[in-house]
Amino acid sequence: MNKWIGLSLLIVLLGGGYWFSKSQKPKMTNDSHDQHQEAEIYTCPMHPEVKQDKPGKCPICHMDLVKVKKKKQNSSSKGRGAIEASDDELKLIGVQKHTVEKMSLSSRLPVSGRFTSASQIAFQIYERELGEIKVGNKFVGQAASNPEVELEGEITTIDAYVDPISRTIRVIGTLSTRSNNVRVESSFHGQVVVEIPDVIAIPEDAILHTGKDDLVYMFQEGDSLKAHSVKLGVKVKGYYQVLKGLSEGDVITTGANFLLDSEAKIRGTRD
Predict the structure, then answer these.
(1) 3-class secondary structure, 182
(2) pLDDT, tens digit, for every residue of 38-52?
(3) Of 15, 40, 121, 171, whose CA is between 20 and 30 Å from 216?
(4) H-helix or E-strand spanning residue 21
């Protein structure tokens, strides 16, 4: 009798355990749509690394957190290294869209020199300025001995030798106008006129200088943004000449790009 009672209890326990395990087993769904639903999060406009799922204040600057929507997407939907930001999100953090175009850059580079003859002046320019000054550039200025007379000329020679101590290069300019009171070795003060026509140029605040690369954030498709390396030329009045990496018509961002870069690093989309 005890044998049958024990067997009956064993069957009940095993059966109960089976149904208990089934009732505790998580439900499996195959709703791939959930992977693309939009999730609301709250973040700080100044510190995008701060994120939470309810309203509150930023623990860093104590600003009210702002509700934004982020699309949950699989890793292959936009490509490696891309982040998404809507127009409203960009506006919120002080970032604007900018269409790349060609333009003419113009500036005046201050120079000082000395007369090597009545018609020629020798300037010393820093090697970092060599990208701006070319043979044929115009210059204007005055001799210290006769400052009321405006002198004009053009650059005719640029030395190949860099002074190892001052890191300067000698540039010779030939005058097209003369001053009657000029003395050889007297000083000259003026400006070299730099004109770079019809080049691709972008605002300075579009560029992130990382130390290793110069980057811009470029729109790929829709709201998708990706860091893009560019090679820069001269800087003139807040604009950089772009030698390589962008084409006319490309759309990039300007403004607080460091916030986009911070977000990309937090998400692991940029090293």
Answers:
(1) coil
(2) 567 787 867 777 888
(3) 40
(4) helix 2-24
